[in-house]
Amino acid sequence: MTPPNDQREAFIPGSRGIRHLQPAGPIPDWRIRQLAAEGMISPFEPGKIREVESHFPGAPWDTYKRKVISYGCSSYGYDLTLSPKEFRIFRHVPGLIVDPKDFDDRCLAHAELHHHERDGDFFILPGHTYALGVVIERLKLPSNVTAEFIGKSTYARCGVIINLTPGEAGWEGYLTLEMSNSSGADCRIYADEGICQAQFFEGLPCDQPYGDGKYQGQAAGVTLAKV
């Protein structure tokens, strides 16, 4: 039984003072939409997008529905999209050792953004390599909301793994993504389409939100490791 002073307990407005347990799981779509309206996710897509309207090459007057890797609000999460602005792939540089306390960006190469008339824009992540990207959406987590970012099953079935990382309460900025291609085959990573899912957990306000942490206010580009 949950102790009376457990932080998951809270007075619910209109409950006549009865204590209720806060839900322990991720918040649902309707609550995500409410928080997005208050600025938690921008830009925000209230529904799940699986296809977009595109034009046939050489015929701008003629349109068709192009399938995309889904993004937008889902039942208990929000699928974020990959920015076309920056995608950097780790490479071996003789004599250079990656140091998280003193990161040398010479170990990162800028990936080329490719375009296919039917499929859209994409980067190529070579087999057995690791890359950093950034999402299009700007996040602003309230002081009582924390998040975790997980991979999408479509990419997972291609061998692409998105590192599971937290978003601390009070953090805001553009999320830098860390991903690896665990397969031996090169893989397309599509820009302006779904890349990972954010799940949000709401509770009572914490004593120490993220505040002025080292990754606070990340710009719309890849942010490197730092201490």
Give keywords:
Deoxyuridine 5'-Triphosphate Nucleotidohydrolase, Chain A; globular; single chain; eleven-stranded antiparallel beta sheet; 47% strand; three-stranded antiparallel beta sheet; 2 helices; 227 residues
Structure description:
- This protein has helices spanning 29-37, 153-156; strands at residues 9-11, 19-21, 41-42, 48-56, 59-74, 77-90, 108-110, 114-116, 120-125, 129-140, 145-151, 160-162, 165-167, 172-181, 187-190, 194-202.
- It starts with 8 loop residues before the first strand and ends in a 25-residue tail after the last strand.
- It has 227 residues and is mostly beta strands.
- It is globular.
- Strands 3, 4, 5, 6, 7, 10, 11, 12, 13, 14 and 16 form an eleven-stranded antiparallel beta sheet that branches. A three-stranded antiparallel beta sheet has the order 8-9-15, with no helix packed on it.
- It is 6% helix and 47% strand.
- β4 (48-56) and β5 (59-74) form a beta hairpin.
- Residues 1-8 and 10-15 have low confidence and may be disordered.
- It has one domain (18-202): Deoxyuridine 5'-Triphosphate Nucleotidohydrolase, Chain A, CATH 2.70.40.10.
